[in-house]
Amino acid sequence: MNAQTENIHLLAPHQSLARYLAIRARSLALAAPLSEEDCGAQSMPDASPIKWHLAHTTWFFETFILERFEANFQPHHPAFRVLFNSYYNGVGDKHARAQRGLLTRPPFDEVLAYRRDVDVRIHALLAQALPAEAKSEMVGLLELGLQHEQQHQELMMTDVLHLFSRNPLKPAYTDTLYSLAETAPALQWQSFDSGVVQLGHEGTDFCFDNELPRHRQFVEPYALATRLVTNREYLAFVEAGGYENPALWLSEGWDWVQTQQISHPLYWQHDRGWHTFSLHGLRPLDLHAALTHVSYFEADAYARWSGARLPTEAEWEHAAREARDLIQLFGTCWQWTSSSYAAYPGYQTAAGALGEYNGKFMSNQYVLRGSSSVTPSGHERVSYRNFFPATARWQFSGIRLAR
Protein backbone atom coordinates (compact mmCIF):
# COMPACT_ATOMS: atom_id res chain seq x y z
CA MET A 1 0.00 0.00 0.00
CA ASN A 2 1.45 3.40 -0.93
CA ALA A 3 1.58 6.72 0.87
CA GLN A 4 -1.66 7.86 -0.75
CA THR A 5 -3.74 4.94 0.48
CA GLU A 6 -2.35 3.94 3.85
CA ASN A 7 -3.35 7.11 5.70
CA ILE A 8 -7.12 6.52 5.65
CA HIS A 9 -9.88 4.90 7.67
CA LEU A 10 -10.69 1.64 5.90
CA LEU A 11 -14.43 1.26 5.38
CA ALA A 12 -16.31 -2.02 5.55
CA PRO A 13 -16.94 -3.54 2.10
CA HIS A 14 -20.64 -2.53 2.07
CA GLN A 15 -19.71 1.02 3.05
CA SER A 16 -17.05 1.13 0.35
CA LEU A 17 -19.57 -0.09 -2.23
CA ALA A 18 -22.15 2.52 -1.23
CA ARG A 19 -19.56 5.29 -1.48
CA TYR A 20 -18.32 3.88 -4.78
CA LEU A 21 -21.78 3.78 -6.33
CA ALA A 22 -22.68 7.29 -5.12
CA ILE A 23 -19.56 8.91 -6.56
CA ARG A 24 -19.78 6.98 -9.81
CA ALA A 25 -23.43 8.01 -10.18
CA ARG A 26 -22.52 11.66 -9.68
CA SER A 27 -20.18 11.57 -12.70
CA LEU A 28 -23.06 10.38 -14.87
CA ALA A 29 -25.36 13.02 -13.36
CA LEU A 30 -22.86 15.73 -14.32
CA ALA A 31 -22.89 14.46 -17.90
CA ALA A 32 -26.68 14.15 -18.05
CA PRO A 33 -27.40 17.73 -19.31
CA LEU A 34 -25.03 17.22 -22.23
CA SER A 35 -25.59 15.81 -25.69
CA GLU A 36 -23.42 13.06 -27.12
CA GLU A 37 -21.85 15.70 -29.37
CA ASP A 38 -21.01 17.79 -26.28
CA CYS A 39 -19.42 14.77 -24.63
CA GLY A 40 -17.10 13.98 -27.52
CA ALA A 41 -15.63 17.43 -28.19
CA GLN A 42 -12.28 18.77 -26.97
CA SER A 43 -11.79 22.54 -26.95
CA MET A 44 -8.04 22.67 -26.28
CA PRO A 45 -5.16 20.30 -25.46
CA ASP A 46 -5.40 20.99 -21.71
CA ALA A 47 -9.07 19.95 -21.62
CA SER A 48 -10.55 16.52 -22.26
CA PRO A 49 -13.89 15.37 -23.69
CA ILE A 50 -16.50 14.37 -21.12
CA LYS A 51 -16.61 10.92 -22.73
CA TRP A 52 -12.89 10.54 -22.09
CA HIS A 53 -13.26 11.57 -18.42
CA LEU A 54 -15.98 8.94 -17.93
CA ALA A 55 -13.84 6.28 -19.56
CA HIS A 56 -10.54 7.23 -17.90
CA THR A 57 -11.94 7.13 -14.38
CA THR A 58 -13.28 3.66 -15.19
CA TRP A 59 -9.90 2.67 -16.61
CA PHE A 60 -8.36 3.61 -13.26
CA PHE A 61 -10.47 1.06 -11.36
CA GLU A 62 -9.96 -1.61 -14.03
CA THR A 63 -6.20 -1.10 -14.23
CA PHE A 64 -5.26 -0.65 -10.59
CA ILE A 65 -7.90 -2.80 -8.86
CA LEU A 66 -9.47 -5.40 -11.15
CA GLU A 67 -6.20 -6.25 -12.87
CA ARG A 68 -4.54 -6.58 -9.47
CA PHE A 69 -7.18 -8.55 -7.54
CA GLU A 70 -9.69 -10.16 -9.92
CA ALA A 71 -9.13 -13.85 -10.57
CA ASN A 72 -8.68 -14.65 -14.27
CA PHE A 73 -8.78 -10.96 -15.13
CA GLN A 74 -9.74 -10.09 -18.69
CA PRO A 75 -9.89 -6.44 -19.86
CA HIS A 76 -13.21 -5.07 -21.01
CA HIS A 77 -11.49 -4.11 -24.27
CA PRO A 78 -7.74 -4.56 -24.86
CA ALA A 79 -7.41 -1.22 -26.67
CA PHE A 80 -8.83 0.73 -23.74
CA ARG A 81 -5.58 0.25 -21.81
CA VAL A 82 -3.92 2.68 -24.24
CA LEU A 83 -6.87 4.88 -25.23
CA PHE A 84 -7.78 5.88 -21.67
CA ASN A 85 -4.39 5.95 -19.98
CA SER A 86 -3.63 9.54 -19.02
CA TYR A 87 0.00 9.88 -17.98
CA TYR A 88 1.01 6.59 -16.32
CA ASN A 89 4.17 5.62 -18.17
CA GLY A 90 4.54 2.60 -15.93
CA VAL A 91 1.30 1.18 -17.34
CA GLY A 92 2.36 1.49 -20.97
CA ASP A 93 1.56 3.47 -24.09
CA LYS A 94 -0.92 6.37 -24.13
CA HIS A 95 -3.11 8.05 -26.72
CA ALA A 96 -1.92 11.62 -27.31
CA ARG A 97 -3.63 14.03 -24.92
CA ALA A 98 -4.27 16.69 -27.54
CA GLN A 99 -6.03 14.11 -29.74
CA ARG A 100 -8.59 12.80 -27.26
CA GLY A 101 -11.29 14.69 -29.11
CA LEU A 102 -10.60 12.55 -32.19
CA LEU A 103 -11.79 9.41 -30.43
CA THR A 104 -15.19 9.13 -32.08
CA ARG A 105 -14.88 5.43 -31.32
CA PRO A 106 -15.69 3.87 -28.95
CA PRO A 107 -19.12 5.54 -29.09
CA PHE A 108 -20.63 7.09 -25.98
CA ASP A 109 -22.93 4.09 -25.37
CA GLU A 110 -19.93 1.77 -25.27
CA VAL A 111 -18.22 3.99 -22.71
CA LEU A 112 -21.34 3.73 -20.56
CA ALA A 113 -21.29 -0.06 -21.01
CA TYR A 114 -17.63 -0.04 -19.95
CA ARG A 115 -18.58 1.79 -16.77
CA ARG A 116 -21.40 -0.66 -16.02
CA ASP A 117 -19.15 -3.68 -16.57
CA VAL A 118 -16.42 -2.40 -14.27
CA ASP A 119 -18.96 -1.40 -11.62
CA VAL A 120 -20.44 -4.91 -11.58
CA ARG A 121 -17.00 -6.45 -11.28
CA ILE A 122 -15.95 -4.09 -8.48
CA HIS A 123 -19.17 -5.03 -6.65
CA ALA A 124 -18.36 -8.72 -7.01
CA LEU A 125 -14.78 -8.19 -5.88
CA LEU A 126 -15.86 -6.39 -2.72
CA ALA A 127 -18.13 -9.31 -1.87
CA GLN A 128 -15.31 -11.85 -2.09
CA ALA A 129 -13.46 -13.20 0.91
CA LEU A 130 -9.88 -11.99 0.51
CA PRO A 131 -6.98 -12.21 2.96
CA ALA A 132 -7.03 -9.26 5.37
CA GLU A 133 -3.91 -7.64 3.90
CA ALA A 134 -5.22 -7.89 0.34
CA LYS A 135 -8.65 -6.59 1.38
CA SER A 136 -7.05 -3.65 3.13
CA GLU A 137 -4.94 -2.83 0.08
CA MET A 138 -7.91 -3.15 -2.26
CA VAL A 139 -10.16 -0.88 -0.19
CA GLY A 140 -7.35 1.66 0.07
CA LEU A 141 -6.90 1.65 -3.70
CA LEU A 142 -10.67 1.93 -4.12
CA GLU A 143 -10.67 5.12 -2.04
CA LEU A 144 -7.80 6.53 -4.11
CA GLY A 145 -9.81 5.78 -7.24
CA LEU A 146 -12.84 7.57 -5.83
CA GLN A 147 -10.80 10.62 -4.88
CA HIS A 148 -9.37 10.51 -8.41
CA GLU A 149 -12.87 10.39 -9.88
CA GLN A 150 -13.89 13.41 -7.78
CA GLN A 151 -10.94 15.31 -9.21
CA HIS A 152 -12.22 14.46 -12.68
CA GLN A 153 -15.73 15.56 -11.75
CA GLU A 154 -14.32 19.03 -11.19
CA LEU A 155 -12.38 18.81 -14.44
CA MET A 156 -15.57 17.83 -16.26
CA MET A 157 -17.11 21.15 -15.21
CA THR A 158 -14.06 23.26 -16.06
CA ASP A 159 -13.66 21.52 -19.41
CA VAL A 160 -17.30 21.81 -20.47
CA LEU A 161 -17.28 25.48 -19.47
CA HIS A 162 -14.30 26.08 -21.75
CA LEU A 163 -15.96 24.08 -24.53
CA PHE A 164 -19.21 26.03 -24.33
CA SER A 165 -17.36 29.35 -24.17
CA ARG A 166 -16.00 28.60 -27.64
CA ASN A 167 -19.50 28.11 -29.06
CA PRO A 168 -21.01 31.25 -30.70
CA LEU A 169 -24.40 30.22 -29.29
CA LYS A 170 -22.99 30.68 -25.75
CA PRO A 171 -25.04 27.77 -24.37
CA ALA A 172 -25.66 27.34 -20.65
CA TYR A 173 -24.74 24.08 -18.95
CA THR A 174 -27.37 24.60 -16.27
CA ASP A 175 -30.69 26.45 -16.15
CA THR A 176 -30.75 26.74 -12.37
CA LEU A 177 -31.61 30.16 -10.98
CA TYR A 178 -28.75 32.61 -11.23
CA SER A 179 -28.73 35.79 -9.17
CA LEU A 180 -26.20 38.57 -8.77
CA ALA A 181 -24.55 39.10 -5.40
CA GLU A 182 -25.99 42.05 -3.53
CA THR A 183 -22.74 43.21 -1.98
CA ALA A 184 -19.29 42.09 -0.94
CA PRO A 185 -18.03 42.52 2.62
CA ALA A 186 -15.35 45.12 3.17
CA LEU A 187 -11.85 43.81 2.59
CA GLN A 188 -10.02 43.63 5.90
CA TRP A 189 -6.73 42.19 7.01
CA GLN A 190 -6.13 39.44 9.54
CA SER A 191 -2.65 39.56 11.08
CA PHE A 192 -0.62 36.56 12.18
CA ASP A 193 2.50 36.44 14.32
CA SER A 194 5.77 34.86 13.30
CA GLY A 195 6.64 31.41 14.50
CA VAL A 196 7.13 27.77 13.68
CA VAL A 197 3.96 26.26 12.17
CA GLN A 198 2.93 22.71 11.37
CA LEU A 199 2.07 22.01 7.74
CA GLY A 200 0.72 18.98 5.93
CA HIS A 201 -2.05 16.49 6.52
CA GLU A 202 -2.82 15.29 10.04
CA GLY A 203 -5.09 12.51 11.17
CA THR A 204 -6.05 9.23 9.56
CA ASP A 205 -8.48 10.41 6.89
CA PHE A 206 -7.51 10.15 3.23
CA CYS A 207 -4.91 12.46 1.76
CA PHE A 208 -2.76 12.47 -1.37
CA ASP A 209 0.94 11.76 -0.97
CA ASN A 210 1.92 15.35 -1.82
CA GLU A 211 0.26 16.48 1.44
CA LEU A 212 2.80 14.46 3.42
CA PRO A 213 4.82 14.30 5.53
CA ARG A 214 3.61 16.71 8.17
CA HIS A 215 6.50 19.03 8.97
CA ARG A 216 7.51 22.31 10.55
CA GLN A 217 8.18 25.62 8.85
CA PHE A 218 8.98 29.09 10.11
CA VAL A 219 6.84 32.00 8.91
CA GLU A 220 7.50 35.68 9.37
CA PRO A 221 4.69 38.00 10.54
CA TYR A 222 2.10 38.40 7.81
CA ALA A 223 -1.47 39.45 7.12
CA LEU A 224 -4.05 37.80 4.90
CA ALA A 225 -7.07 39.42 3.28
CA THR A 226 -10.27 38.26 4.93
CA ARG A 227 -11.95 37.61 1.57
CA LEU A 228 -11.14 37.08 -2.09
CA VAL A 229 -10.60 39.81 -4.67
CA THR A 230 -13.87 40.77 -6.39
CA ASN A 231 -14.66 41.41 -10.03
CA ARG A 232 -15.11 45.12 -9.24
CA GLU A 233 -11.62 45.35 -7.75
CA TYR A 234 -10.04 43.51 -10.66
CA LEU A 235 -11.99 45.61 -13.17
CA ALA A 236 -10.27 48.68 -11.67
CA PHE A 237 -6.93 47.02 -12.50
CA VAL A 238 -8.08 46.36 -16.07
CA GLU A 239 -9.36 49.91 -16.58
CA ALA A 240 -6.21 51.39 -15.06
CA GLY A 241 -4.15 49.76 -17.83
CA GLY A 242 -2.84 46.89 -15.74
CA TYR A 243 -2.41 44.68 -18.79
CA GLU A 244 -0.44 47.42 -20.53
CA ASN A 245 2.12 48.14 -17.80
CA PRO A 246 5.19 45.87 -18.02
CA ALA A 247 6.39 47.04 -14.59
CA LEU A 248 3.62 44.99 -12.98
CA TRP A 249 4.42 41.71 -14.67
CA LEU A 250 6.99 38.98 -14.30
CA SER A 251 9.08 38.77 -17.46
CA GLU A 252 7.57 35.51 -18.64
CA GLY A 253 4.11 36.79 -17.74
CA TRP A 254 4.61 39.95 -19.81
CA ASP A 255 5.71 37.86 -22.79
CA TRP A 256 2.61 35.70 -22.34
CA VAL A 257 0.30 38.73 -22.21
CA GLN A 258 1.88 40.21 -25.33
CA THR A 259 2.07 37.09 -27.47
CA GLN A 260 -1.44 35.90 -26.51
CA GLN A 261 -2.89 39.44 -26.68
CA ILE A 262 -4.54 39.08 -23.27
CA SER A 263 -6.31 42.11 -21.81
CA HIS A 264 -8.80 40.69 -19.28
CA PRO A 265 -9.74 37.44 -17.47
CA LEU A 266 -10.50 34.42 -19.60
CA TYR A 267 -14.30 34.53 -19.69
CA TRP A 268 -14.81 38.30 -19.61
CA GLN A 269 -16.00 40.10 -22.72
CA HIS A 270 -17.04 43.68 -23.37
CA ASP A 271 -20.15 44.32 -25.45
CA ARG A 272 -22.14 47.35 -24.30
CA GLY A 273 -20.84 46.64 -20.81
CA TRP A 274 -18.82 43.86 -19.23
CA HIS A 275 -20.16 40.32 -19.30
CA THR A 276 -18.74 36.98 -18.26
CA PHE A 277 -19.39 33.48 -19.51
CA SER A 278 -20.27 30.92 -16.85
CA LEU A 279 -22.00 27.57 -16.49
CA HIS A 280 -25.20 29.66 -16.57
CA GLY A 281 -24.28 31.08 -19.99
CA LEU A 282 -23.33 34.66 -20.80
CA ARG A 283 -24.28 36.98 -17.94
CA PRO A 284 -23.59 40.59 -16.87
CA LEU A 285 -20.40 40.76 -14.86
CA ASP A 286 -21.28 40.45 -11.18
CA LEU A 287 -19.12 43.17 -9.65
CA HIS A 288 -19.58 41.89 -6.10
CA ALA A 289 -18.70 38.28 -6.83
CA ALA A 290 -15.24 36.81 -6.37
CA LEU A 291 -12.98 37.00 -9.41
CA THR A 292 -12.33 33.65 -11.09
CA HIS A 293 -10.42 32.21 -14.05
CA VAL A 294 -7.16 34.15 -13.80
CA SER A 295 -3.66 32.80 -14.22
CA TYR A 296 -0.81 32.97 -11.74
CA PHE A 297 0.72 35.73 -13.86
CA GLU A 298 -2.49 37.79 -13.64
CA ALA A 299 -2.85 37.16 -9.92
CA ASP A 300 0.74 38.21 -9.28
CA ALA A 301 0.43 41.37 -11.41
CA TYR A 302 -2.80 42.39 -9.68
CA ALA A 303 -1.30 41.84 -6.24
CA ARG A 304 1.68 44.02 -7.15
CA TRP A 305 -0.62 46.74 -8.56
CA SER A 306 -2.69 46.73 -5.36
CA GLY A 307 0.36 47.13 -3.12
CA ALA A 308 0.15 43.59 -1.76
CA ARG A 309 1.41 40.14 -2.77
CA LEU A 310 0.23 36.56 -3.01
CA PRO A 311 0.47 34.39 0.12
CA THR A 312 2.84 31.48 0.39
CA GLU A 313 1.16 28.14 0.79
CA ALA A 314 2.55 27.94 4.34
CA GLU A 315 0.86 31.24 5.18
CA TRP A 316 -2.41 30.14 3.58
CA GLU A 317 -2.53 26.80 5.40
CA HIS A 318 -1.51 28.31 8.74
CA ALA A 319 -4.15 31.02 8.44
CA ALA A 320 -6.82 28.52 7.37
CA ARG A 321 -6.08 26.34 10.39
CA GLU A 322 -6.40 29.35 12.66
CA ALA A 323 -9.85 29.94 11.06
CA ARG A 324 -10.43 33.34 12.57
CA ASP A 325 -12.30 35.82 10.42
CA LEU A 326 -11.37 34.49 6.99
CA ILE A 327 -14.19 33.73 4.55
CA GLN A 328 -14.26 32.08 1.10
CA LEU A 329 -11.47 29.69 2.00
CA PHE A 330 -13.42 26.86 0.39
CA GLY A 331 -16.20 26.50 -2.15
CA THR A 332 -15.64 29.67 -4.18
CA CYS A 333 -12.41 29.35 -6.16
CA TRP A 334 -8.92 27.96 -5.85
CA GLN A 335 -6.47 30.58 -4.62
CA TRP A 336 -3.04 31.09 -6.15
CA THR A 337 -0.06 31.10 -3.82
CA SER A 338 3.47 32.27 -4.58
CA SER A 339 4.84 28.80 -3.75
CA SER A 340 6.29 26.58 -6.41
CA TYR A 341 4.92 23.06 -6.35
CA ALA A 342 7.66 21.00 -4.73
CA ALA A 343 8.07 18.07 -2.38
CA TYR A 344 7.76 18.50 1.36
CA PRO A 345 10.86 17.59 3.41
CA GLY A 346 11.05 13.82 3.65
CA TYR A 347 8.59 13.18 0.81
CA GLN A 348 8.98 9.81 -0.89
CA THR A 349 7.40 8.81 -4.17
CA ALA A 350 5.45 5.57 -3.94
CA ALA A 351 6.67 2.56 -5.89
CA GLY A 352 5.03 1.51 -9.13
CA ALA A 353 2.84 3.37 -11.59
CA LEU A 354 0.76 5.03 -8.86
CA GLY A 355 3.93 6.80 -7.78
CA GLU A 356 3.41 8.94 -10.91
CA TYR A 357 0.17 10.40 -9.50
CA ASN A 358 1.72 13.57 -8.05
CA GLY A 359 5.48 13.50 -7.65
CA LYS A 360 6.55 13.72 -11.26
CA PHE A 361 4.66 17.01 -11.71
CA MET A 362 6.77 18.88 -9.15
CA SER A 363 8.33 21.16 -11.75
CA ASN A 364 7.29 24.50 -13.29
CA GLN A 365 3.95 24.64 -11.46
CA TYR A 366 2.47 26.80 -8.69
CA VAL A 367 0.35 25.70 -5.73
CA LEU A 368 -3.29 26.71 -5.33
CA ARG A 369 -5.16 26.25 -2.07
CA GLY A 370 -8.78 25.96 -1.00
CA SER A 371 -11.46 24.60 -3.35
CA SER A 372 -13.93 25.92 -5.91
CA SER A 373 -17.66 26.08 -6.54
CA VAL A 374 -17.37 22.93 -8.69
CA THR A 375 -15.24 20.93 -6.24
CA PRO A 376 -17.29 17.91 -5.11
CA SER A 377 -18.66 18.16 -1.59
CA GLY A 378 -16.33 16.58 0.95
CA HIS A 379 -13.33 16.65 -1.37
CA GLU A 380 -11.76 19.78 0.14
CA ARG A 381 -9.41 19.95 3.13
CA VAL A 382 -6.98 22.47 4.55
CA SER A 383 -3.85 20.55 3.49
CA TYR A 384 -4.98 19.92 -0.12
CA ARG A 385 -2.38 21.05 -2.68
CA ASN A 386 -3.71 21.81 -6.15
CA PHE A 387 -1.16 22.81 -8.80
CA PHE A 388 -1.10 24.28 -12.30
CA PRO A 389 1.31 26.05 -14.65
CA ALA A 390 1.52 29.83 -14.35
CA THR A 391 -0.53 30.38 -17.53
CA ALA A 392 -3.46 28.14 -16.55
CA ARG A 393 -6.74 30.02 -16.15
CA TRP A 394 -9.53 27.77 -17.37
CA GLN A 395 -9.81 26.49 -13.80
CA PHE A 396 -11.87 28.28 -11.15
CA SER A 397 -8.83 30.15 -9.83
CA GLY A 398 -8.82 33.49 -8.03
CA ILE A 399 -6.87 35.77 -5.72
CA ARG A 400 -6.49 36.19 -1.97
CA LEU A 401 -4.03 38.95 -1.10
CA ALA A 402 -1.30 38.90 1.53
CA ARG A 403 1.14 41.42 2.90
CATH architecture of the largest domain: Alpha-Beta Complex
Number of strands: 11
Quick check: average pLDDT?
Answer: 94
- Name the helix and strand elements from N-terminus to C-terminus, one letter apiece: HHHHHHEEEEHHEEEHHEEEE
Low-confidence stretches: 5-9
Strand order of the biggest β-sheet: 10-9-8-11
Superfamily at the CATH H level of the largest domain? Answer: paralog of FGE (formylglycine-generating enzyme)
Classified by CATH, the class of the largest domain is Alpha Beta
- What is the assembly state of the chains in this entry? single chain
How many structural domains does the protein architecture include? 2
CATH topology of the largest domain: paralog of FGE (formylglycine-generating enzyme)
Total count of helical runs of at least 4 residues? 10
Query: How many strands, what sense, and barrel or not for the largest sheet?
Result: 4 strands, mixed
Structure overview:
- The chain is of the alpha+beta class.
- The protein has two domains: 13-165; 189-398, paralog of FGE (formylglycine-generating enzyme), CATH 3.90.1580.10.
- Helix content is 35%, strand content 11%.
- The chain has a four-stranded mixed beta sheet. A three-stranded antiparallel beta sheet has the order 5-6-7. It has a two-stranded antiparallel sheet with strand order 1-4.
- A hairpin with a 2-residue loop joins strand 6 and strand 7 (281-284).
- The longest helix has 34 residues, at 132-165.
- It is globular, with a radius of gyration of 22 Å.
